[in-house]
Write a structure and sequence with these properties.
The protein is an alpha+beta fold and about 775 residues long. Helices cover about 30% and strands about 25% of the residues. It is built from 21 helices and 32 strands. The chain starts with a helix and ends with a helix.
């Protein structure tokens, strides 16, 4: 992912930046210097004049309090705590004096995105260096106050110590003068602490989270809580098709009878994101809800008005069945030759239904125009993607739009691209007053960026001696990145087009195979029916579902134990050796997690119709692998087909664990999300829209279906990687493989339904 970010002008290139540590009225400030060379101002002058760009990492008040700025979205993952720990550990400050502030979208903060499980991974090095540079500056100033050389002083928990004498950080800030610039070379030379020197990060550390108290005492402010003076309430009328709908006429005669109804607007969107939109506004939200229910809009529907789930699946099957479709994502060895020379071959077609986000907090935004600037109050995961579209819709320069941050009541990828903000700002612009637009659950569902239905065809070849000789994987779905962030799509390895990396990752697995080909195909019918979305684990969730289930099929064909078969291919040779810093050890680390897991479950006594299945995964991408081995213990009722997920096991190597409680919560949540997608969550497109729009028909995992969980983290000092999404990936194939081991039924469709089992057992 790093290469993709380097395409963006806003990106912080640490190789060309230097750090400044300077004094100001607020105390001590740590910031980026604009350039490495030709910097005319001293650090102290630059800080006092705010002549720095793009990010102020943190500042320390005269009483020693450390305020760390968080340019990420908080949506339940406690990212503020994790990032603050990184800074505070290197800074050697007192954790009780640390607080966090979430920042708005001012350009000084640079490129802003919270997704892909990237936050800790991408922030670890610069935040560690920012903390270390601050510590050095404090030691230098503290040593001067103590009358010793910096080399004979050390920092520890908010004090600079020299022999039996010490001075607090607060005293240093009050008495010392800071005017220190660290060049890029000096920054690169700053060593990050080894594990045995850490006091705030690592598996054995347990300190209070900074962002939990407000969530438990009711003071946390979410986007849906935002209010501004003089605002009206609005609700959208969702058109019958995502694209191509046109409003012919509107009849609001019944809506006018609703007390508080103010009117409606037919939106014209210069960004062309919204097509055929009507928004109703009222004095209060209940009135807006009622008015939309009563309003009648006559539409010219778009071309996908009759598209069904079956149509999308049929198109996916057609696409993967042809050798001429798509773009090669992996092409190693000679798969075609292996196929021709094969004595035998097997294949499996794996599918997933449409799935939706259904985040707890429905979409919402408050839009107001003040002075010459538009202010948006909402929770958004990817402001740097959203702001240009808002500016285009409003026909104003991007610097005239600011997103004010709020907690997100669930994101899971839905709040990356902020398309729901557009109707809020356009309505506010049309009526000339602030607007708070809130989607009902049904509105949210109909406008959701669904995880596309998917189809994967896998083929394995076996040579004349019966050995496994080649793997082909073709997979088709709607691509989120194609619609929402096309600049992030690299060319395929065959040069025949671009590929959505988030809809292909996982096919570039860590197994050593002589012949391996993976072909990514865009399902254009899905693409034009709705906006495909990034949903927690993204493409890995459906691509590895097919891959890891099929690996078991290959092992059984060879008469080998599926665990040993995997271990044999996780040899860490060639490209599978990994690289520094993100994947040191490569496939051997994944192998280790599977070995640990296999020993953990080897002595479990299975009852009748019970089985244990395994899967390995290395999400989110090869450039940021979290090594996870997953096992599922299931019971299958042969009469009803019901699968009971009794227990999930996961052994996780995520490198250095920054915030242990947060990491555990992330893995627990992602395992349960994976279980929900594996066994329950399913939607279907009908007449161009999703059929299920609320929890009475969309059925995620319920409390009575919760499995036990056994999660073990590998103690590691390797580079930390993201853990928000990777736990999802291995659950479905582990469950499927367990079902096969329990009753001999191979399941190839998600979610795995009782009817899938009974239809086989009764034949």
């Amino acid at each position: 992912m790093k290469k993709l970010f380097q395409k963006k002008k806003e990106t912080v290139d640490l190789n060309r930046r230097s750090f400044m540590v300077g004094s100001a009225s607020a105390g001590l400030i740590m910031a980026f210097a604009p350039t490495l060379v030709s910097f005319d101002l001293s650090a102290a002058e630059a800080v006092s004049q705010e002549a720095f760009s793009p990010t102020i990492w943190w500042h320390m008040t005269p009483n020693g309090d450390v305020i760390i700025n968080i340019a990420k979205a908080e949506m339940g993952q406690h990212i503020g705590t994790a990032l603050a720990r990184i800074v505070a550990d290197e800074l050697e400050c007192d954790w009780d004096k640390v607080s966090i502030e979430y920042v708005d979208t001012d350009k000084k903060w640079g490129f802003m995105v919270t997704g892909g499980s990237w936050s800790v991974f991408q922030s670890f090095k610069p935040l560690s260096q920012a903390g270390a540079a601050g510590r050095i500056a404090l030691i230098e100033a503290g040593a001067k106050l103590l009358g010793v050389k910096p080399g004979s002083a050390r920092a520890e928990k908010g004090r600079v110590i020299a022999g039996s004498n010490s001075v607090t950080y607060a005293e240093i800030v009050q008495k010392g003068k800071f005017n220190r610039t660290f060049s890029a070379d000096e920054i690169a030379a700053l060593a990050i602490k080894p594990a045995n020197k850490r006091h705030l990060t690592g598996l054995n550390q347990d300190f209070k989270a900074l962002d939990i108290p407000t969530k438990t005492n009711g003071t946390a402010v979410y986007g849906i809580d935002a209010e501004v003076e003089g605002m009206v309430y609005a609700r959208p009328v969702i058109p019958p098709t995502r694209y191509g709908s046109e409003v012919r006429k509107v009849d609001d005669s019944k809506s006018k009878k609703v007390n508080g109804y103010l009117g409606y607007e037919i939106l014209k969107d210069p960004s062309d994101t919204l097509q055929g939109w009507v928004v109703v506004y009222a004095k209060n939200y209940p009135a807006a809800i009622k008015a939309v229910d009563l309003i009648k809009v006559d539409y010219k529907k778009g071309e996908t008005a009759s598209v069904s789930e079956a149509d999308i699946q049929a198109e996916g099957k057609r696409l993967v069945s042809s050798d001429s479709t798509g773009t090669l994502f992996v092409d190693e060895g000679d798969v075609a030759k292996a196929r021709i020379e094969a004595k035998e071959s097997i294949e499996g077609l794996y599918t997933t239904d449409t799935a939706n986000h259904f985040q707890l907090e429905p979409l919402n935004a408050v839009a107001e125009f003040k002075g010459d600037t538009w202010y948006v109050h909402t929770g958004n995961q990817w402001p740097s993607l959203t702001l240009p579209v808002l500016a285009k819709a409003l026909e104003v320069p991007q610097e005239k739009v600011v997103i004010k941050p709020y907690y997100l009541g669930g994101g899971f990828g839905r709040r990356l691209y902020g398309d729901w903000i557009i109707p809020a700002v356009l309505t506010a612009k049309a009526i000339g007053r602030p607007v708070k637009l809130v989607f009902t659950r049904a509105d949210d569902s109909l406008f959701d960026q669904s995880r596309s239905a998917s189809t994967s065809l896998l083929k394995a070849s076996f040579d004349k001696e019966g050995n496994f000789s080649g793997l082909e994987q073709a997979f088709a779905a709607g691509w989120p990145t194609k619609t929402m962030a096309p600049d992030f799509m690299p060319p395929g390895v065959d040069g025949k087009g671009k590929v959505d990396p988030f809809s292909a990752s996982g096919a570039d697995h860590w197994y050593s195979m002589v012949n391996h080909r993976a072909r990514a195909i865009n399902n254009e019918l899905a693409q034009k029916t709705f906006t495909p979305g990034w949903l927690r684990s993204v493409g890995q969730g459906w691509i590895v579902w097919g891959l890891e289930s099929f690996i078991d099929e290959i092992a059984h064909k060879l008469g080998k134990d599926p665990v040993q078969f995997r271990l044999d291919m996780l040899d860490g040779k060639g490209k599978q050796a990994g690289k520094a810093p993100e994947s040191v050890g490569g496939a051997k680390r994944l192998r280790n997690t599977l070995e640990v897991l296999a020993k953990k479950v080897v002595n479990i006594k299975l009852g009748k119709d019970e089985g244990i299945g395994f899967a390995v995964s290395a999400g989110q991408e090869r450039t940021m692998p979290a090594w996870i081995a997953t096992a599922a213990h299931v019971h299958v009722n042969r009469q009803t087909g019901k699968i009971t997920l009794k227990k999930l096991y996961a052994v996780v190597d995520g490198g250095l664990i920054i915030h242990p409680n947060g990491a555990l919560a992330q893995i627990e949540g992602s395992l349960l999300w994976g279980a929900s997608l594996a066994l329950f969550e399913s939607n279907a497109y009908h007449n161009g829209q999703v059929r299920s729009t609320n929890f009475n028909t969309y059925l995620p995992l319920r409390m009575n279906d919760m499995p036990e969980m056994d999660i073990e983290f590998v103690d590691s000092d390797e580079f930390p990687v993201g853990l928000g999404e990777p736990g999802v990936i291995g659950v479905a194939p582990a469950v499927s493989n367990a079902v096969f081991n329990a009753v001999g039924v191979r399941l190839r469709a998600l979610p795995m339904k009782p009817s899938h089992i009974t239809s086989v057992l009764r034949t």
